[in-house]
Amino acid sequence: MTHYKESRFTLRDDFYFHTLTALEEVLSSKKIPYAVVGGGAYQVKMTSLLSDGGIIDIKDVHGLDVILRPTGDIDLTTKSDHSTMLSVFNEMAARYPALNINNTAGKLVRIKHPGKGQVLINYQTCSDDLRGLTLFYDEIIDTSEEHALRKGNKRVYVKIPRPEFLIASKLIRSAEKDKIDIFNLLNLFFNKGTSVNFEEVRGILKAIGKEDKFEYIQQINYDLQ
């Protein structure tokens, strides 16, 4: 089934940030191991790289609007089960009555707010749900990085995969938008003087039979040096 998604939100949007904050609060209270993956994770990582570290006040980070590609969802990888995740969203609805939370038959939840559209939450509860990086499901969660973000009076400590997994997941897809994300991310790493373990990226791809996808890194890495 195709799910309609409004790809117009970034971390700067109150509704998207509020949804992410509400979700993380309940996941943490229930002690559910997780990592935000996909476009949302890229937004968090690039925001972090553009900041000076510590608790990041999004409104003070310059240049975000140029590189944050809008999304319409939050992709979530968890060590949980379906019934527990349903309880997460029920608790979100109780804690945040302004959010209209609609569970679907599958592992997808629609979060709506009057006049602000909707954000989809796609969640995974087992390795088979994670397309492409199935072999690394547990490792992605176990080695995730925590980033502290603030917007107004709201604060979130959100966990995302390490850069090597972020890059590998984008290389697997290799759509034009994914290549742009990779290029922007690597440029930020280079400008910050931070390294990426490209051999680990290659090893991840090799383990799933996608080593040929590493060619894009070889094409652009010369320009980044």
Structural overview:
By secondary structure, the protein is α/β, with parallel strands linked by helices. It has two domains: 1-161, Beta Polymerase, domain 2 (2-Layer Sandwich), CATH 3.30.460; 163-225, no CATH class. The protein has helices spanning 14-29, 38-50, 64-67, 82-95, 137-142, 163-173, 176-192, 198-207, 215-224; strands spanning 34-37, 56-57, 73-78, 100-103, 108-113, 117-124, 145-151, 154-160. The strands form two sheets. It has a five-stranded mixed β-sheet. The protein has a three-stranded mixed β-sheet with strand order 2-7-8.
Given helix and strand content, the structural type is alpha/beta
Which term fits the overall shape? globular
Order of helices and strands: HEHEHEHEEEHEEHHHH
State the CATH class of the largest domain. Answer: Alpha Beta
Largest sheet: 5 strands, mixed
Mean pLDDT, rounded to whole units?
92
What's the number of extended β-strand segments?
Answer: 8
Which oligomerization state do the chains in this entry correspond to? Answer: single chain
Please count the helical segments.
9
Fold-level CATH name of the largest domain: Beta Polymerase, domain 2
Q: Strand-residue fraction?
A: 15-25%
Low-pLDDT stretches are: none
Task: Please list the strands of the largest sheet in the order they lie side by side.
Answer: 1-3-6-5-4
Gross CATH architecture of the largest domain = 2-Layer Sandwich
Structurally, how many domains make up the residues? 2
Radius of gyration, taken over Cα atoms and rounded to an integer in Å: 17 Å
Distance between the termini: 43 Å
Query: Roughly how much helix do the residues carry, as a percent range?
Result: 40-55%
